[in-house]
Amino acid sequence: MIRITPDYSATLPYSLWTADQVKRAEPKLAAQAQVSLYQLMLLAGTNGFSLLRQRWPQAQHLLIICGGGNNGGDALVIAKLAIEAGMQVSLLVHGDVSKFPKEAAQAWQELPRQQLTQIESLSEAPKDIDVIVDGLLGAGLKGHVRDDAAQLINELNLWELPILALDIPSGLSADTGQPLGCALTCDATITFIGVKQGLLTAQAANYCGQLYYSSLGLDSVLGEFEPTDCKRSDYSKLHVLLPKRSRTAHKGMFGRVALFGGDLGTPGAIRMAAEASQRVGAGLVTVISQAENLSIILNSRPELMARGVSIDDEAIVQQFLKATSVHVLGPGLGQSDWSKWLFSQVVASDKLLVLDADGLNLLAKSSLERQNWVLTPHPGEASRLLDCSVADIENDRFGAVREIASKYQAVTLLKGAGSLVASPSGEVRVLNVGNPGMASGGMGDVLSGMIAGLLAQHLPMFEAVCLAVCIHGSAADRAAKDGERGMLASDLFAHIRVLVNPEN
Hints:
- By secondary structure, the chain is of the alpha/beta class.
- It has helices spanning 19-33, 37-55, 70-84, 102-110, 147-156, 205-208, 219-225, 235-238, 267-279, 294-299, 314-323, 337-347, 358-364, 379-385, 390-395, 397-408, 443-456, 461-479, 493-499; strands spanning 61-66, 88-93, 117-119, 131-135, 163-166, 188-192, 210-214, 230-232, 256-260, 284-289, 305-308, 326-329, 352-355, 373-375, 411-414, 419-422, 428-431.
- Helix 2 crosses helix 3 and helix 2 (37-55) packs across helix 4 (102-110).
- The model has no long low-confidence stretch (mean pLDDT 96).
- A 10-stranded mixed β-sheet has the order 8-17-16-15-14-13-12-9-10-11, with helices on both faces.
- It is built from 19 helices and 17 strands.
């Protein structure tokens, strides 16, 4: 028998689930725990109410928005608890009470309705509301929000009051993190039993506010009924891949990285990628670029090596390909004849390869097949790799990253808010790190260089990509202490160096 205890925390577990997985597992979990689904509803409501009191201890008047599903039942439990605590409650029921599912109907029957104010529309709401509880639409929502619910959501979004969402903000897809037409902008969300994968990627951060998790005591066995290959990861879990170095270490032990790119006029991208490889600890780093770029590349970072090449210099390129262990192709590459020539030379090698930027755009135009590589598209580049729209990518980021990884047999990083990393076999990691200050040129170039630098130190490919993303985002979060706006990619370097030395 599983012991069911109240709980909630801002610390999230690592396993992630789809809404259907949690829905299928819930009755089995309840049966194994020897509790009813209604008892789970009572516990969810109890935890939601405890969080509300902790977040807004001065609140005296709640507006409870109750939909027609069990998500609304959770809200009704909170309404009952609030009344018992001496709070005022205004209740707006959006749906037909006679069609409530069994558990929500029981919550409705046990609600002391004579002690609350039931309203038919938001225009009837009292003026002294302190907090709104969102139990309108749950995680099971698939299609677009219906017009009547959308009108209610849009009206609530205009109110300047704190909102607590139960399980998921109404209108947000639990599987993709995209609003289904519209979604409620909340200050906090408490999700139950299993963390839904969509809460950590795409547009979710705009709607969830602070995310909390309540397992209802069932998380330890959820995976027995619904195995998942989707997990989140973070720096605290991955930094063990960076052991303290031997006191007799030398540069030959930590790999040789060659970076190919930087067409005429674009030396900055390849320069930053190269320093990023150095900053994560690669032993030797060489840039192969247009000859005209070399003075800029070397002027500010003399520790780098660099060589200028033209289309006639195939032998020189081959020399560097053979002498180095990891390659980066794409930062500042362009799509000129020189770019296409360099692309064809590098991708033909069987060495570890990180492909980024215009390397990905050239890949989308080719029929290349190979293994032993990492692809790092943003949504625009991903759309070209899959010959679809950016909206298609964003509407199913999990499906998109898995499809690219399978199609190209590559560990694939789909960048963006809540970056995703997928293996060719379909395993996915969600890296929910970073901040809006990263929306500036050069951030992706730094990340590609970091991945290569970690690969050069013999980290497994999938884990190296995940760790690079975590360090990259964590470094940006540290840099953001001086403000997000105006952050430059090069501002991350000092913080990257600290993060790759976790023993300090």
